[in-house]
Design goal:
This protein is 29% helix and 14% strand. By secondary structure, the protein is an alpha/beta fold. The chain has a domain of 42 residues. The longest helix has 17 residues. It is globular, with a radius of gyration of 14 Å.
């Protein structure tokens, strides 16, 4: 696609079990040992289509389910220097109002990480962001 790097990465549970703040994860963090290949694979990605299914407070009860928290997925976006992100794989119990709040939280976390990239939630039939 015009020399652009696009990645589709779902069901990866980045930073498996990490419940701390995303600001605690840096490029040399021990928590990255098993996740370094994913960070390297996504390095400089122009568009990431990737999941962030749970709010951080939900994630504690869902560790091992295969889905990332918003905070952990935001850490991945920054560590990999992702340029744009479409968040996919929404929990079916989250309604549109909840997803709007989650998107605002995602943007806030990215700003707190000093990585305010363009981010949107994916939906069926989405084409304008690509």
């Amino acid at each position: 696609m015009g020399g652009k790097k696009i990645a589709y990465v779902s069901d990866n549970e980045f930073l498996f079990g990490h419940l701390g703040p995303p600001q605690a994860i840096g490029p040399d963090s021990a928590a990255l040992v098993h996740h370094r290949p994913l960070v390297d694979f996504l390095a400089g990605c122009d568009l990431l289509v990737g999941e962030a299914q749970y709010l951080n407070e939900e994630y504690g009860g869902k560790v091992g389910w295969g889905h990332s928290s918003v905070g952990n997925a935001c850490a991945l976006a920054k560590l990999a220097a992702v340029k744009r992100w479409i968040v996919i794989h929404h929990d079916p119990l989250h309604d549109d109002e909840f997803l709007d709040k989650k998107l605002n939280l995602t943007k806030s976390v990215l700003r707190s990480l000093d990585w305010p990239i363009e981010v949107r939630h994916g939906y069926d039939g989405m084409v304008e962001f690509i």
